[in-house]
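Case study 2.
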Amino acid sequence: MASGSSSPFHWLGLLKWSLAYSDGTKPSSDAKPMSKEDVEFLEKVMQEGIIDEGERMKSILKDLTDSLEALLGVECPQEEKRKELDEDDMLDLLQELRDIVEQIDYARAFMSLGGIPFLLGCATYHASEGKDTNRTIPKSIRKAALGCLSTMTQNNPPVQLRLLEHGHMPQLIQLFFDYTPGNACGNDADDSIREKAVQALSASVRGHAMAEHIFCQNEQAKAMLRLGLGMQPEGPKPSAPLRKRSLFLLRALLTSDDATAERHDKFRDEVSFVCTHEIDEKWEDDAEIREMGLAMLAQLLRHKYPEHQPGDKNVSATILQHKDSIGAVGVARIQEIRSLKEGSDEREYASLELEEWETLLLALAEVEKEAAGECKDDAPPLALCN
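Prediction:
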Protein backbone atom coordinates (compact mmCIF):
# COMPACT_ATOMS: atom_id res chain seq x y z
CA MET A 1 0.00 0.00 0.00
CA ALA A 2 1.33 3.42 -0.93
CA SER A 3 2.16 5.68 1.96
CA GLY A 4 0.82 9.20 2.42
CA SER A 5 -2.75 10.51 2.45
CA SER A 6 -2.55 11.55 -1.24
CA SER A 7 -3.02 7.99 -2.46
CA PRO A 8 -6.57 7.36 -3.71
CA PHE A 9 -6.27 3.68 -2.83
CA HIS A 10 -6.13 3.71 0.99
CA TRP A 11 -9.62 2.27 1.17
CA LEU A 12 -8.39 -0.69 -0.87
CA GLY A 13 -5.51 -1.19 1.53
CA LEU A 14 -7.87 -1.18 4.47
CA LEU A 15 -10.11 -3.69 2.69
CA LYS A 16 -7.13 -5.97 1.99
CA TRP A 17 -6.10 -5.79 5.66
CA SER A 18 -9.62 -6.67 6.79
CA LEU A 19 -9.85 -9.59 4.38
CA ALA A 20 -6.52 -10.91 5.61
CA TYR A 21 -7.98 -11.32 9.07
CA SER A 22 -11.42 -12.56 8.07
CA ASP A 23 -12.31 -14.62 4.98
CA GLY A 24 -16.06 -14.56 5.65
CA THR A 25 -16.24 -18.33 6.25
CA LYS A 26 -15.41 -18.43 9.96
CA PRO A 27 -17.72 -17.11 12.71
CA SER A 28 -16.58 -13.89 14.28
CA SER A 29 -16.44 -15.62 17.65
CA ASP A 30 -13.35 -17.48 16.41
CA ALA A 31 -11.46 -14.25 15.76
CA LYS A 32 -8.39 -13.62 17.91
CA PRO A 33 -7.88 -10.32 19.75
CA MET A 34 -5.68 -7.91 17.79
CA SER A 35 -2.18 -7.29 18.97
CA LYS A 36 -1.00 -3.82 19.95
CA GLU A 37 0.92 -3.60 16.67
CA ASP A 38 -2.24 -4.46 14.68
CA VAL A 39 -4.26 -1.81 16.51
CA GLU A 40 -1.62 0.85 15.84
CA PHE A 41 -1.45 -0.16 12.18
CA LEU A 42 -5.24 0.04 11.81
CA GLU A 43 -5.36 3.47 13.47
CA LYS A 44 -2.65 4.73 11.12
CA VAL A 45 -4.51 3.46 8.06
CA MET A 46 -7.74 5.09 9.24
CA GLN A 47 -6.03 8.43 9.89
CA GLU A 48 -4.30 8.42 6.50
CA GLY A 49 -7.40 7.32 4.60
CA ILE A 50 -9.83 9.91 5.99
CA ILE A 51 -9.32 13.56 5.14
CA ASP A 52 -10.82 16.25 7.37
CA GLU A 53 -12.05 18.69 4.72
CA GLY A 54 -12.41 21.51 7.26
CA GLU A 55 -8.80 21.16 8.37
CA ARG A 56 -7.71 20.79 4.77
CA MET A 57 -9.38 24.08 3.81
CA LYS A 58 -7.61 25.80 6.72
CA SER A 59 -4.30 24.35 5.56
CA ILE A 60 -4.92 25.47 1.96
CA LEU A 61 -5.81 28.98 3.11
CA LYS A 62 -2.69 29.19 5.27
CA ASP A 63 -0.37 27.97 2.49
CA LEU A 64 -1.94 30.29 -0.09
CA THR A 65 -1.82 33.27 2.26
CA ASP A 66 1.85 32.66 3.09
CA SER A 67 2.78 32.25 -0.55
CA LEU A 68 0.90 35.33 -1.73
CA GLU A 69 2.43 37.43 1.03
CA ALA A 70 5.87 36.32 -0.11
CA LEU A 71 4.96 37.01 -3.73
CA LEU A 72 3.73 40.52 -2.92
CA GLY A 73 6.66 41.34 -0.64
CA VAL A 74 4.72 41.46 2.60
CA GLU A 75 7.15 41.52 5.51
CA CYS A 76 7.22 38.47 7.73
CA PRO A 77 8.46 38.33 11.36
CA GLN A 78 11.86 36.65 11.49
CA GLU A 79 10.72 34.00 13.92
CA GLU A 80 7.77 33.04 11.70
CA LYS A 81 8.29 30.48 8.95
CA ARG A 82 6.03 30.51 5.94
CA LYS A 83 5.64 28.49 2.80
CA GLU A 84 6.58 30.05 -0.50
CA LEU A 85 4.86 27.98 -3.17
CA ASP A 86 5.36 28.69 -6.85
CA GLU A 87 2.54 29.61 -9.22
CA ASP A 88 1.83 26.04 -10.32
CA ASP A 89 1.60 24.77 -6.74
CA MET A 90 -0.79 27.59 -5.82
CA LEU A 91 -2.95 26.75 -8.82
CA ASP A 92 -3.06 23.12 -7.68
CA LEU A 93 -4.22 24.22 -4.22
CA LEU A 94 -6.91 26.47 -5.67
CA GLN A 95 -8.15 23.62 -7.86
CA GLU A 96 -8.27 21.33 -4.81
CA LEU A 97 -10.15 24.04 -2.93
CA ARG A 98 -12.62 24.37 -5.80
CA ASP A 99 -13.25 20.63 -5.71
CA ILE A 100 -13.98 20.83 -1.98
CA VAL A 101 -16.33 23.84 -2.05
CA GLU A 102 -18.31 22.24 -4.85
CA GLN A 103 -20.28 20.69 -1.99
CA ILE A 104 -22.71 23.24 -0.56
CA ASP A 105 -21.94 22.52 3.10
CA TYR A 106 -18.19 22.85 2.58
CA ALA A 107 -18.74 26.08 0.66
CA ARG A 108 -20.54 27.49 3.68
CA ALA A 109 -17.83 26.21 5.98
CA PHE A 110 -15.19 27.91 3.83
CA MET A 111 -17.24 31.10 4.01
CA SER A 112 -17.15 30.86 7.82
CA LEU A 113 -13.36 30.57 7.68
CA GLY A 114 -13.17 33.98 5.98
CA GLY A 115 -12.70 32.53 2.53
CA ILE A 116 -14.82 35.07 0.66
CA PRO A 117 -12.71 38.19 1.37
CA PHE A 118 -9.58 36.15 0.64
CA LEU A 119 -10.83 35.05 -2.80
CA LEU A 120 -12.14 38.54 -3.62
CA GLY A 121 -8.84 40.10 -2.61
CA CYS A 122 -6.89 37.54 -4.58
CA ALA A 123 -8.94 38.21 -7.72
CA THR A 124 -9.05 42.01 -7.52
CA TYR A 125 -5.75 42.97 -5.85
CA HIS A 126 -4.13 46.22 -6.96
CA ALA A 127 -0.81 47.52 -5.62
CA SER A 128 -1.52 50.73 -3.72
CA GLU A 129 0.49 53.91 -4.11
CA GLY A 130 3.91 53.79 -2.56
CA LYS A 131 4.21 50.01 -2.98
CA ASP A 132 6.07 48.05 -5.60
CA THR A 133 3.63 48.06 -8.49
CA ASN A 134 5.73 45.44 -10.26
CA ARG A 135 4.66 42.92 -7.65
CA THR A 136 1.22 41.65 -8.48
CA ILE A 137 -0.86 38.50 -8.48
CA PRO A 138 -0.54 36.47 -11.71
CA LYS A 139 -3.56 36.35 -13.98
CA SER A 140 -3.74 32.59 -13.64
CA ILE A 141 -4.16 32.90 -9.86
CA ARG A 142 -6.81 35.60 -10.27
CA LYS A 143 -8.77 33.40 -12.66
CA ALA A 144 -8.50 30.40 -10.35
CA ALA A 145 -9.80 32.49 -7.43
CA LEU A 146 -12.72 33.65 -9.56
CA GLY A 147 -13.41 30.03 -10.46
CA CYS A 148 -13.60 29.14 -6.77
CA LEU A 149 -16.03 32.00 -6.17
CA SER A 150 -18.21 30.81 -9.03
CA THR A 151 -18.32 27.26 -7.71
CA MET A 152 -19.08 28.07 -4.08
CA THR A 153 -21.78 30.68 -4.78
CA GLN A 154 -23.84 28.91 -7.43
CA ASN A 155 -27.27 27.93 -6.06
CA ASN A 156 -26.06 28.69 -2.53
CA PRO A 157 -28.17 31.56 -1.09
CA PRO A 158 -26.26 32.07 2.19
CA VAL A 159 -22.98 32.43 0.29
CA GLN A 160 -24.61 34.70 -2.29
CA LEU A 161 -25.90 36.91 0.51
CA ARG A 162 -22.50 37.06 2.19
CA LEU A 163 -20.93 38.15 -1.10
CA LEU A 164 -23.47 40.97 -1.33
CA GLU A 165 -22.53 42.04 2.19
CA HIS A 166 -18.89 42.16 1.13
CA GLY A 167 -19.79 44.44 -1.80
CA HIS A 168 -18.52 42.04 -4.43
CA MET A 169 -20.42 43.47 -7.40
CA PRO A 170 -18.53 46.78 -7.77
CA GLN A 171 -15.23 44.95 -7.25
CA LEU A 172 -15.83 42.30 -9.91
CA ILE A 173 -17.39 44.76 -12.35
CA GLN A 174 -14.32 46.99 -11.96
CA LEU A 175 -12.09 43.97 -12.55
CA PHE A 176 -13.93 43.43 -15.84
CA PHE A 177 -13.26 47.02 -16.93
CA ASP A 178 -9.63 46.85 -15.75
CA TYR A 179 -8.97 44.30 -18.50
CA THR A 180 -11.22 45.83 -21.17
CA PRO A 181 -9.49 47.26 -24.27
CA GLY A 182 -8.53 50.90 -23.65
CA ASN A 183 -8.72 50.56 -19.86
CA ALA A 184 -7.36 53.33 -17.65
CA CYS A 185 -5.07 50.97 -15.72
CA GLY A 186 -2.67 50.36 -18.57
CA ASN A 187 -3.38 46.61 -18.45
CA ASP A 188 -3.30 44.54 -21.60
CA ALA A 189 -6.84 43.60 -22.60
CA ASP A 190 -7.65 40.07 -21.46
CA ASP A 191 -10.99 38.47 -22.32
CA SER A 192 -10.16 35.37 -20.26
CA ILE A 193 -10.20 37.41 -17.03
CA ARG A 194 -13.29 39.32 -18.15
CA GLU A 195 -15.03 36.04 -18.87
CA LYS A 196 -14.18 34.70 -15.40
CA ALA A 197 -15.44 37.93 -13.80
CA VAL A 198 -18.78 37.61 -15.62
CA GLN A 199 -18.98 33.94 -14.63
CA ALA A 200 -18.44 34.76 -10.94
CA LEU A 201 -21.01 37.57 -11.04
CA SER A 202 -23.47 35.33 -12.85
CA ALA A 203 -23.14 32.53 -10.30
CA SER A 204 -23.49 34.99 -7.42
CA VAL A 205 -26.75 36.59 -8.60
CA ARG A 206 -28.71 33.91 -10.48
CA GLY A 207 -31.64 32.60 -8.49
CA HIS A 208 -31.20 35.16 -5.69
CA ALA A 209 -33.99 37.75 -5.94
CA MET A 210 -32.20 40.52 -4.07
CA ALA A 211 -28.91 39.99 -5.91
CA GLU A 212 -30.65 39.96 -9.30
CA HIS A 213 -32.48 43.19 -8.47
CA ILE A 214 -29.31 44.97 -7.31
CA PHE A 215 -27.42 43.84 -10.40
CA CYS A 216 -30.15 45.04 -12.76
CA GLN A 217 -30.22 48.45 -11.09
CA ASN A 218 -26.45 48.90 -11.51
CA GLU A 219 -25.64 50.89 -14.64
CA GLN A 220 -22.04 49.67 -14.64
CA ALA A 221 -23.28 46.09 -14.58
CA LYS A 222 -25.47 46.81 -17.57
CA ALA A 223 -22.51 48.42 -19.38
CA MET A 224 -20.43 45.34 -18.60
CA LEU A 225 -23.06 43.08 -20.14
CA ARG A 226 -23.24 45.22 -23.27
CA LEU A 227 -19.47 45.02 -23.76
CA GLY A 228 -19.48 41.31 -23.02
CA LEU A 229 -22.11 40.71 -25.69
CA GLY A 230 -20.13 42.71 -28.23
CA MET A 231 -22.22 45.89 -28.35
CA GLN A 232 -19.21 48.23 -28.30
CA PRO A 233 -19.28 50.73 -31.20
CA GLU A 234 -15.75 49.89 -32.32
CA GLY A 235 -12.83 47.60 -31.58
CA PRO A 236 -12.47 43.81 -31.74
CA LYS A 237 -15.38 41.52 -30.98
CA PRO A 238 -15.13 39.87 -27.54
CA SER A 239 -14.02 36.26 -27.38
CA ALA A 240 -16.64 33.54 -27.85
CA PRO A 241 -16.41 32.37 -24.19
CA LEU A 242 -17.04 35.95 -22.99
CA ARG A 243 -19.97 36.45 -25.37
CA LYS A 244 -21.39 33.12 -24.22
CA ARG A 245 -21.10 33.96 -20.51
CA SER A 246 -22.69 37.36 -21.06
CA LEU A 247 -25.59 35.99 -23.06
CA PHE A 248 -26.13 33.24 -20.48
CA LEU A 249 -26.37 35.85 -17.70
CA LEU A 250 -28.69 38.08 -19.74
CA ARG A 251 -31.00 35.15 -20.43
CA ALA A 252 -31.01 34.13 -16.75
CA LEU A 253 -31.95 37.65 -15.65
CA LEU A 254 -34.74 38.07 -18.21
CA THR A 255 -36.29 34.61 -17.77
CA SER A 256 -35.96 34.51 -13.98
CA ASP A 257 -39.05 33.88 -11.87
CA ASP A 258 -38.49 37.38 -10.47
CA ALA A 259 -38.21 39.09 -13.86
CA THR A 260 -40.62 41.99 -14.30
CA ALA A 261 -41.79 44.17 -17.15
CA GLU A 262 -39.56 46.92 -15.75
CA ARG A 263 -36.52 44.64 -15.96
CA HIS A 264 -37.39 43.62 -19.51
CA ASP A 265 -37.78 47.26 -20.51
CA LYS A 266 -34.39 48.09 -18.96
CA PHE A 267 -32.67 45.53 -21.20
CA ARG A 268 -34.65 46.32 -24.34
CA ASP A 269 -31.54 47.34 -26.32
CA GLU A 270 -29.74 44.13 -25.37
CA VAL A 271 -32.73 42.05 -26.53
CA SER A 272 -32.73 43.97 -29.83
CA PHE A 273 -29.02 43.23 -30.24
CA VAL A 274 -29.69 39.52 -29.83
CA CYS A 275 -32.40 39.80 -32.51
CA THR A 276 -30.12 41.53 -35.00
CA HIS A 277 -26.70 40.00 -34.24
CA GLU A 278 -26.47 37.01 -31.92
CA ILE A 279 -28.74 34.76 -34.01
CA ASP A 280 -27.35 35.76 -37.39
CA GLU A 281 -24.56 33.56 -38.73
CA LYS A 282 -23.11 36.54 -40.61
CA TRP A 283 -22.20 38.18 -37.27
CA GLU A 284 -22.14 35.30 -34.80
CA ASP A 285 -19.96 32.45 -35.97
CA ASP A 286 -20.36 30.36 -32.82
CA ALA A 287 -23.25 27.91 -33.25
CA GLU A 288 -23.77 27.42 -29.52
CA ILE A 289 -24.19 31.16 -28.97
CA ARG A 290 -26.70 31.35 -31.83
CA GLU A 291 -28.63 28.48 -30.26
CA MET A 292 -28.63 30.25 -26.89
CA GLY A 293 -29.89 33.46 -28.49
CA LEU A 294 -32.68 31.67 -30.35
CA ALA A 295 -33.77 29.81 -27.22
CA MET A 296 -33.78 33.03 -25.20
CA LEU A 297 -35.97 34.90 -27.69
CA ALA A 298 -38.48 32.04 -27.88
CA GLN A 299 -38.59 31.83 -24.09
CA LEU A 300 -39.13 35.58 -23.77
CA LEU A 301 -41.95 35.53 -26.32
CA ARG A 302 -43.75 32.95 -24.17
CA HIS A 303 -42.85 34.48 -20.83
CA LYS A 304 -45.82 34.82 -18.49
CA TYR A 305 -45.69 37.34 -15.68
CA PRO A 306 -46.91 36.26 -12.23
CA GLU A 307 -49.49 39.03 -12.25
CA HIS A 308 -50.70 41.72 -14.64
CA GLN A 309 -48.23 44.54 -14.88
CA PRO A 310 -48.42 47.73 -16.93
CA GLY A 311 -46.52 47.37 -20.16
CA ASP A 312 -46.18 43.61 -19.80
CA LYS A 313 -45.89 43.26 -23.58
CA ASN A 314 -42.64 45.21 -23.71
CA VAL A 315 -40.34 42.29 -24.37
CA SER A 316 -42.65 40.74 -26.99
CA ALA A 317 -43.09 44.10 -28.67
CA THR A 318 -39.31 44.57 -28.79
CA ILE A 319 -38.84 41.22 -30.50
CA LEU A 320 -41.79 41.81 -32.85
CA GLN A 321 -40.12 45.00 -34.06
CA HIS A 322 -37.49 42.75 -35.65
CA LYS A 323 -39.89 40.09 -36.96
CA ASP A 324 -39.09 40.76 -40.62
CA SER A 325 -35.33 40.48 -40.22
CA ILE A 326 -35.67 37.49 -37.90
CA GLY A 327 -37.95 35.80 -40.41
CA ALA A 328 -35.63 36.48 -43.33
CA VAL A 329 -32.56 35.19 -41.51
CA GLY A 330 -34.47 32.24 -40.08
CA VAL A 331 -36.00 31.02 -43.34
CA ALA A 332 -32.65 31.25 -45.14
CA ARG A 333 -30.84 29.42 -42.33
CA ILE A 334 -33.49 26.67 -42.11
CA GLN A 335 -33.24 26.09 -45.85
CA GLU A 336 -29.46 25.99 -45.62
CA ILE A 337 -29.48 23.40 -42.83
CA ARG A 338 -32.12 21.24 -44.51
CA SER A 339 -30.04 21.19 -47.68
CA LEU A 340 -27.18 19.50 -45.83
CA LYS A 341 -26.76 15.80 -46.50
CA GLU A 342 -28.91 13.70 -44.20
CA GLY A 343 -26.75 11.84 -41.69
CA SER A 344 -23.69 13.98 -42.30
CA ASP A 345 -21.67 15.48 -39.45
CA GLU A 346 -22.61 18.99 -40.61
CA ARG A 347 -26.33 18.16 -40.51
CA GLU A 348 -26.02 16.54 -37.09
CA TYR A 349 -24.04 19.51 -35.76
CA ALA A 350 -26.70 21.98 -36.99
CA SER A 351 -29.72 19.94 -35.86
CA LEU A 352 -30.17 21.79 -32.58
CA GLU A 353 -29.94 25.18 -34.28
CA LEU A 354 -32.58 24.02 -36.77
CA GLU A 355 -34.86 23.00 -33.92
CA GLU A 356 -34.35 26.33 -32.14
CA TRP A 357 -35.10 28.27 -35.34
CA GLU A 358 -38.34 26.36 -35.89
CA THR A 359 -39.37 26.92 -32.26
CA LEU A 360 -38.65 30.66 -32.45
CA LEU A 361 -40.52 31.22 -35.73
CA LEU A 362 -43.52 29.33 -34.36
CA ALA A 363 -43.49 31.40 -31.14
CA LEU A 364 -43.12 34.58 -33.21
CA ALA A 365 -46.15 33.65 -35.33
CA GLU A 366 -48.23 32.87 -32.24
CA VAL A 367 -47.41 36.15 -30.52
CA GLU A 368 -47.99 38.13 -33.72
CA LYS A 369 -51.38 36.46 -34.12
CA GLU A 370 -52.30 37.30 -30.51
CA ALA A 371 -51.20 40.90 -30.99
CA ALA A 372 -53.26 41.21 -34.17
CA GLY A 373 -56.30 39.76 -32.40
CA GLU A 374 -56.00 42.17 -29.48
CA CYS A 375 -55.62 45.08 -31.88
CA LYS A 376 -58.78 44.02 -33.72
CA ASP A 377 -60.78 43.61 -30.52
CA ASP A 378 -59.71 46.98 -29.15
CA ALA A 379 -60.16 48.96 -32.37
CA PRO A 380 -63.15 51.31 -32.79
CA PRO A 381 -65.56 50.63 -35.65
CA LEU A 382 -64.05 51.06 -39.13
CA ALA A 383 -60.58 51.64 -37.67
CA LEU A 384 -57.62 50.01 -39.38
CA CYS A 385 -54.95 48.20 -37.42
CA ASN A 386 -51.36 48.65 -38.51
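Residues 1-20, 22-26, 381-386 have pLDDT under 50 and may be disordered.
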